[in-house]
Design a protein that fits this description.
The chain has about 220 residues and is α/β, with parallel strands linked by helices. The chain folds into two domains: about 5-145, Rossmann fold (3-Layer(aba) Sandwich), CATH 3.40.50.2300; about 155-220, Winged helix-like DNA-binding domain superfamily/Winged helix DNA-binding domain (Arc Repressor Mutant, subunit A), CATH 1.10.10. It has eleven helices and five strands; from the N terminus they run αβαβαβαβαβαααααα. A five-stranded parallel β-sheet has the order 2-1-3-4-5, sandwiched between helices. α3 (about 45-55) packs parallel to α4 (about 70-80), α8 crosses α11 and α9 (about 175-185) packs across α10 (about 190-200). The radius of gyration is 18 Å and the shape is globular. The relative contact order is 0.10.
């Protein structure tokens, strides 16, 4: 084994999941510049990612929540079954007040907003590799405040299940029922059931009002 091969074998292996090639290229360049990390593979959607992760068993996975096919939250759950030793960091554009707790409950060990500095992304990767959690101080404070207030139920959106929130988000982005079903690998009837549950939880009367509210929420930044 050459010196270069020995050096690479000692590095922690990172697998990337993001449906934007430029993001994957940026992350690959950033991570491969580190003396202790190396990108061992990448995927643009959940099915492709799971196939490679099961084979490669990377040390850490950096994944977006929003994928072209499949859900990032569901991906986290699947990874914990297929490769439980792999730590997961979610790197997302979505507001952490609504998504970070869901990601951590699913099995992720870190949550970083894409607007954060590159230094924080590397810090998050190293934190989870050491067995630690990585979230912002603001998120920690919000969780502490929620518990101090007696475990309040939060906003109506926080009452949606992970799947219901995914359906709501995709409606806000303009996806039709059939496309939502295809992307999440579920039936059209199941999407309709989720829509009915969302209407009930949000107190929405009909499909037109549901679509209007989903679009309004997404255009406002997708916050809780």
């Amino acid at each position: 084994m050459s010196t270069t091969e020995k050096d690479e074998s000692s590095k922690k292996r990172v697998f990337l999941v993001d449906d934007h090639p430029l993001v994957r290229e940026w992350l690959t360049n950033l991570i491969n510049q580190q003396s202790d990390l190396i990108v061992c593979g990448e995927a643009e959607d959940a099915p492709q990612a799971l196939q490679s992760i099961e084979r490669l068993k990377p040390d850490v996975i950096v994944a977006d929540i929003t994928l072209a096919s499949g859900s990032g939250i569901e991906l986290v759950k699947d990874v914990k079954r297929l490769a439980p030793a792999s730590a997961i960091v979610i790197l997302s554009m979505h507001d952490e007040t609504l998504y970070a707790e869901r990601a951590l409950r699913a099995g992720a060990r870190g949550y970083v907003m894409k607007r954060e500095t590159t230094k924080k992304i590397i810090t998050a990767i190293r934190h989870v590799l050491e067995g630690k959690l990585y979230v912002t101080d603001e998120f920690k404070a919000s969780i502490a405040e929620k518990h101090l207030e007696g475990g309040m139920r939060g906003t109506p959106l926080e009452q949606l299940s992970d799947r219901e929130l995914e359906v709501f988000r995709m409606m806000g982005q303009g996806f039709e029922t059939r496309k939502i079903a295809e992307s999440l690998c579920i039936s059209i009837k199941t999407v309709q059931v989720y829509c009915a549950r969302i209407k009930e939880k949000l107190g929405i009367a009909n499909a037109t009002e549901l679509l209007r509210e989903a679009v309004r929420w997404w255009e406002s930044g997708g916050k809780a």
